[in-house]
Fold this sequence. Notes:
Distance between the termini: 61 Å
Order of helices and strands: HEHEEE
Low-confidence stretches: none
Shape: elongated
Number of domains: 1
Oligomer: single chain
Helix content: 25-40%
Number of helices: 2
Amino acid sequence: MSDEQVPAFELxxxxxxxxxxxxxxxxxxxxxxxxLAEIHAAxxxxxxxxxxxxxxxxxxxxxxxxxxxxxxxxxxxxxxxSDGTTWRFATITRWPTxxxxxS
Length: 103
């Protein structure tokens, strides 16, 4: 597939707070924050399990979010996007806390 044939994607809900839409915030930073908050919310609602694609640049923060939820993260091999962005498929899992004797 040539560069001219790469499909374009548009947001269903534009981030009007981003500079590209006339807003005050850097686009990449805003999108990263939105995505990381989405992962945090999913872990909160699911009790600590989540799977999905994560940009390589966000992995340290995703790992900290997983740790906050008492979970661990497992990563598949890197996959480079057509624009050079490296993505990883992540599985975040929180294992049940062992029951102490006498509890």
